[in-house]
Design goal:
about 230 residues, alpha/beta, Nucleotidyltransferase, domain 5, 2 domains, 6-stranded mixed sheet, two-stranded antiparallel ribbon, 9 helices, 10 strands, about 40% helix, about 20% strand, globular
Amino acid sequence: MAKGGQTLQSIKETSLEKRSEKLWTDVQSLLAQASLTIRDISLFAVCVGPGGFTGLRVGIAAVKGWASALGDQVVGVTSLEAAAFGAASPPLLCALVNANRSEVYSQLFSFDHEGVPVAKNDPMVTTLNVALERIELEHDVVFAGDAANEYAESIMNLNAAREGGEWSIVKAERCIAEDIARLALLKHARGEVSSAADLKACYIRPAEAEIKLSLGLLGSKINRTRKA
């Protein structure tokens, strides 16, 4: 939770289990610590992805419900925007977020005078090598995001083999929820808001169930179950 540019309360949850149950108790706990109720919230911010499908759906559904019930506005922030915003506004930043399956979500950003990330290309999900090849001609680039930290050695090894410019890696000083809240406030001031009904997730790639369905694998399993 934030008021203006000040963070009131935040929590970093690392467990992926029972996230739909813990979300409600965590929110109630944070509100209580700040002596607030859900009706005191005038703007909701949420990560719209890319990221884990279950977590995104739970978070977005919760915000849609609260905003609809209270008539409040919503700001959606991508995980790549948040990773970029958490850095120190360099000229160019490549946000790298872990996509699992040995893949990463990536996007290149510059920054405006308020430090708001400005997309220089589209978000993609690829291997790390493909993500780096997409920006290898950029001379001075800062990398940020959980995948940038995880693959720091590979990034710096490629940088050493390049000619011209320098690549570096920066770690976020705050948890991603705080960066989402801060960036959402800046977007709100610019009128970049959404209604609960219009808020949509940024998945980049289809869910595993959707892939199986397109390949006929999910339907086959359902049919086998029916025959059994």
